[in-house]
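Data availability (excerpt). The following record was deposited with the supplementary files.
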Amino acid sequence: MTRQKGFTLLELLIVIIIIVLLTTLSVALLSVFFRGQGARQGAMIVTQVLAQAKQESAKTHKYHFVVFSKKGQDGWMEIHKDNIQMSNGIYDGDQDPKTTSDSDPLVQDSFTELPRNVSFDKSPDWMGIAPSGYCSYNAGFPPMSASSFDSIMNGSKPTPVGDIILRVNNKPYVMCMSIDRASGKIRRSFFINEDGQ
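Predicted structure:
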């Protein structure tokens, strides 16, 4: 009796089970890899917007303001150029883009959205950037010192603190950022998974 060539049903079932196991494992590994990517991408966007505002301020020799806003589930930013002229090198503006007495124009193409479902959990209403790069915040916003930020983030159980905090809505993923006020740059950022995983 001659044996026919081909696969038995048992061999096919074993191959299918192996493929299903590999697919399940790869999906689980990818979900761990992409966990919190929205918050991380949001931190990169904030960094780019601050750099753009600093560049515009240095180029035009005028204060620029980054306005932080939240609409529904999503956060966004825009850059405004201060319309007050400097006299004899001294700034005499009000350093507030939201006053009704002067309307600071929006810088062209400066409206920037955070990734979908990522919003500001904490941020100043606005941040002013001087031509020197120094940044200031709206009145009443308590900036965090670098040493406090570092000690909390390097502790055994970091909690969401910082000058700007981004949160992925309905998820435990948080990005905390500390701003260097002298340079107007993100000094340090730290990702937290509040589930502890």
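Summary of structural features: DSSP finds three helices and nine strands in the chain.
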